[in-house]
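Exam review. A common question shows you a sequence with its structure tokens and asks you to describe the fold in words. Practice with the pair below. Do the first one on your own.
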Amino acid sequence: MSGRADSDTDPEITGPEAAAAQDTGPDAAQAEPGDERGEPDAELDDAEEPDDEPDDAEEPDDADESVEGARRARWTAAGTGAALTLAGLAAALLRLTRSVPGLVPAAYAGGAAVCAGAAVLGARGRTRRALWLLIAGVMVMALGDQSD
């Protein structure tokens, strides 16, 4: 320590002349041209700005991912609804060939109709409602199976 009171003061706090007077140590030989005056380089300010740009650049990527996620949810809801509709109709037809109460094939057909509605809603983008309709349709089919 040199004994001066302002030897550790940041160059931004002290004036340009005082900062230049402090740069007499071993670090002064390694200082860049903008550091001699005690003013920050314009290059350093420019170097900080690209850190902000990736945040802005990520927004379109996030938007693309959310669009892709929504598309995937629509296809999943529509596909699941169609598959459960076909399964319910097949079960209803199989139950019609046996001697079972009429409630059983009706429950399968009703559940298949609800799942078909869910497939339509899912294709239109109403994926939450489609999920609840899929659950309700499967529950109706399960209740029909329990009455067998």
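Now try the second one, then compare your answer with the model answer below.
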Amino acid sequence: MKELQLTIQIRSSKESVWAVLWNDETFRDWANIIDEGTYLEGEMKQGNEIQFISSVNGYGVTSLIEQLRPFEYVLFRHAADTQGNGIEDREKEWTGGKESYSLTEHHGITTLVLRTDVPAELVDIFETRLPLAMERIKQLAESRA
């Protein structure tokens, strides 16, 4: 795995950015850039397992929410790779990886930092798609400010 880190400045409150990140409609919008048809299954609560699943191919990742401070920070630990809309295990390319979102706000500008572990064979794809997803998060949050 390789850790990728991206940072973006957004002219919006951290509460608004957080909403864009995790509300179903906006999550599907920006996550679709990374993996077509991606949606989130489960409740965003520390200690819970959630699933990131593609409605297109049925593949996904089951993740443990290790840390959660609403509007500031969330850390996911990828526990299992899944298929069949999260029902069956599959290869373990994501298992054990981490993904975190950190938000800080200063004078109405929120800094969003995304850190994610990516399997070596997918680094090129994620280095292309993640910046586009971050820009989409910015557009969505700023349009609601």
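Model answer, second protein: Strands lie at 2-10, 38-41, 49-54, 60-69, 73-83, 88-89, 98-106, 109-118. The mean pLDDT is 91. Full marks require stating both points clearly.
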